[in-house]
From TrEMBL:
The keyword Transferase applies. The keyword Transferase applies. GO terms for biological process: amino acid metabolic process. Belongs to the class-I pyridoxal-phosphate-dependent aminotransferase family. This is Aminotransferase class I/classII large domain-containing protein. It comes from the Eukaryota. GO terms for molecular function: pyridoxal phosphate binding; transaminase activity. Residues 5-337 form the Aminotransferase class I/classII large domain. Its cofactor is pyridoxal 5'-phosphate. Gene3D superfamilies: Type I PLP-dependent aspartate aminotransferase-like (Major domain). Keywords: Aminotransferase, Pyridoxal phosphate, Transferase.
Amino acid sequence: ALSTNILGYTGEAGTESLRQKISDHYQHTYGVHVGPERIITTMGASGAILVVFTASFNPGDRVAIASPGYPCYHNILQAVGCDVVTVEVDASTNFQLTAAQLDEADADSSRPIRGVVVASPSNPTGTMLTPLELQELAQWCAQRKATLVSDEIYHGILYGTVEQSTAAAFSSAVVISSFSKYFSMTGWRLGWLVVPPRSAESERWEQAVRALQQNLFISAPTLAQLAVASAAFSLESIDELDGHVHRYSQNRNLLMEALPALGFEDISRADGAFYVWARCDNVAGKEGSGGLCNRVLDHARTAITPGFDFDKRRGNSYVRFSYSGSEATIEEAIRRLHATRARWSA
């Protein structure tokens, strides 16, 4: 790109070559045809979330999200004036929303739910929806003319416990994804949307998405688009990236074995991504997860995340562990936690 001086803005949807590569990725990975005209590149997944929420919902619309969940969903929905319907999930549903829970949350016919946001794999729990569960949620939304927003940023990082499926197969869904996680390109600020197949209604919505993209960002970064289109989907790159996933899997196994012995309970299944969500009441004491995380940082020199950002009501009883580092780093963190447990455990 530098040698050919291709440094200007692209169109708001991104370069044709990158959108075609992403289209091919859906056919190859999921067996789902997603034409390049349905792809819009974005300023990372965060830019995609902002554009989709703004285009899809009006002030006062009720939008359902899972708790625990990624805090930016709640924050951005609230910023655009939505009434956020927080649905508490737990191990009984693998920390994922279900259609039955949405039925209960949608009991007031005078104020129907207009949108549902799901993430599979999830941050902070690492859990995944099965293909059937995702289909049931898509059908629930289609029957009620609600928008299903499926955050698939952690796709590709999974450990064989749940089959991976994409909401791009459903006409009621909008898919958000990114090159930050599986493709290990944090900081390049490049994500994408898969918009629904063209119809009179979806075309108006897509025009709003494109207008917002133009006004907020103009386009995704040109250099990032060109770099990804030229290299990210090559066999050499995929082999390297799958090597990262193998490392995450090894780290996951180490952590899942260690946490019960360290006093943590109700540990999420961690089907994908690189997070584990665990109850910490036994070791946190009266200060809750925030106090525990401070003590672990002080005494074990290890960083874990308090749960209250992800779950406002129950999060003080939970912490999130991330295991995206090297195997040596995770082994050392576990060693430190064991060695200093008497100092950080209540």
